[in-house]
Design brief:
Distance between the termini: 37 Å
Strand content: 5-15%
Number of helices: 15
CATH superfamily: 5'-nuclease
Largest sheet: 8 strands, mixed
Shape: globular
Oligomer: single chain
Number of strands: 8
Length: 333
């Protein structure tokens, strides 16, 4: 997922573009959340929990605590869900489905309980039921969301940030930078900083300055590195891709110059150009007034019933967590 090894090359070529900040410094800011990524993050981070109906619930539990953490710091959130992805992503989607199927077969033949549980996580795919439950949680907590029929969440979130509707995008997907996201929030990239309230923020403008790239060069560089829509050319890594982009301005020039050295797939030029179009699809084309933004008022009573009755969380823990939020926000919740 995302651009192959992009995080590592940013650390190497443009380390000053990465800042480590305490989460409270985002107080008063508006953050777009890449919904699919954060849901998967919560699913995979914890042991799988299920209610009496057999429905997986740990993503709701994890999201509840994460939302409380952000909201208690007066950080406004808006979740962006994935719509139908571009057709070009089908190979990537099929590959993920195959990995999930392979893991399922291994799980069915596994006798070790711990290994079986880990393999089950690998088989997980987001279902409509999972997403509907997340939307219920957001509605009860008064968190807005956007769910277009078409379009990837990180692409829409990036453009919302680029036009100034939000201040940051919260995601682990580095594709978001290729869509031009000015400020990307990630889990802390400095493993020596153990505090859970420390985040990493990648500044897009500082990053491309460190690379000595234009916006156009950065997009083309990322496609050459390998993305969800266009695999990298065999034996062409980040360093080689960077040299190519700094020497030549078009994919035609690159293929012509390196055709005897690297084996470019027959349809590589077509895939490359279509990938470029996808990364530019929302740039300066989004009107915030055309977006359907689902908004709701907080419903604490409904939230408690949902978490206790449907998700089967401990009522005492839910009450204690909500009380912390009420102590911070007062009458706002």
């Amino acid at each position: 997922m995302g651009i192959k090894s992009l995080t590592q090359i940013i650390k190497k070529e443009s380390p000053n573009s990465i800042k480590h900040e305490n989460l409270y410094k985002l107080s008063g800011k508006k953050v777009a959340v890449d919904a699919s990524l954060i849901i998967y993050q919560q699913l995979l981070r914890h042991q799988l929990l299920k209610n009496k109906k057999g429905e997986i619930t740990n993503h709701i539990t994890g999201l509840f605590y994460k939302l409380v953490k952000y909201l208690s710091l007066n950080i406004e959130l808006i979740f962006i869900f994935d719509g139908k992805p571009p057709d070009m992503k089908q190979d990537c989607v099929n590959e993920r489905k195959k990995k999930a199927q392979d893991a399922k077969e291994k799980m069915n033949n596994c006798d070790n309980i711990e290994q079986k549980n880990e393999l089950e996580k690998t088989t997980l795919r987001l279902t409509k039921s999972m997403i509907d439950n997340v939307k219920k949680l957001l509605n009860y907590m008064g968190v807005s969301y956007i769910h277009n029929d078409i379009g990837e969440g990180e692409a829409i979130a990036a453009e919302l940030c680029r036009i100034g509707y939000v201040d940051y995008v919260l995601t682990e997907d580095m594709d978001t930078l290729v869509y031009g996201c000015p400020k990307l929030i990630r889990t802390c990239l400095d493993k020596s900083l153990k505090r859970p309230d420390i985040i990493s923020i990648i500044d897009y403008n500082d990053m491309i300055k460190g690379f000595n790239f234009t916006d156009d060069q950065f997009i083309k560089f990322c496609i050459l590195c390998g993305c969800d829509y266009c695999s990298n050319v065999p034996k062409v890594g980040n360093v080689t891709a960077m040299k190519m982009i700094k020497k030549y301005s078009t994919i035609d020039e690159i293929i012509e110059a390196y055709k005897d050295k690297y084996e470019f797939p027959e349809n590589y030029k077509e895939l490359f150009n279509k990938s470029y179009e996808i990364f530019m699809m929302y740039r300066d084309k989004m009107n915030i007034n055309d977006l359907v933004i689902n908004k709701s008022n907080k419903d604490i009573g409904g939230l408690i019933k949902f978490l206790v009755n449907d998700i089967e969380m401990s009522e005492l823990r839910v009450q204690k967590t909500i009380k912390k939020l009420q102590n911070t926000l007062g009458n706002d919740i």
